[in-house]
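Entry 12.
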Amino acid sequence: MRAVTTRVSEASVSVGGNILGSIGRGYLVLLGIGPADTEKEAVHLAEKICNLRVFEDENGKMNRSLSQVGGEILAVSQFTLYADLKSRRPGFSHAAKPEAAIPLYEKFMEKCRDMGFHVEHGEFGADMQVSSVNDGPVTLIFDTDEV
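Predicted 3D structure (tokens):
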């Protein structure tokens, strides 16, 4: 699994002008799922992201976690994170098919909720418009093959 995680002061996702999910302070997580991914990767990635300490403490150091700041999560499916970029026109055969990806996307969100976080989300496979106000900016890239 791959995730681009951005610390935000607010973020939202909409389809056709209708807002599906919206958060205040927290993380916008663009989540890509590969064909070899399992529930193990979904749980591991959720734990890794939810326990990050990238919010500033009273000394201006990135030392506080999402729970310590009362943060939320907006999870947006992003199959393009598995794009094959060898040519000018990206290929997407390296991304998991929806029947495999949807349950893992849902497992990721379920694990975040089980850890006590409010989670909003987009619509899997839809043409979504994502808005965010990056805080910092702080943007981190995760790949379960590496973390």
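Annotation: The chain has a mean pLDDT of 96. Residues 98-114 form the longest helix (17 residues).
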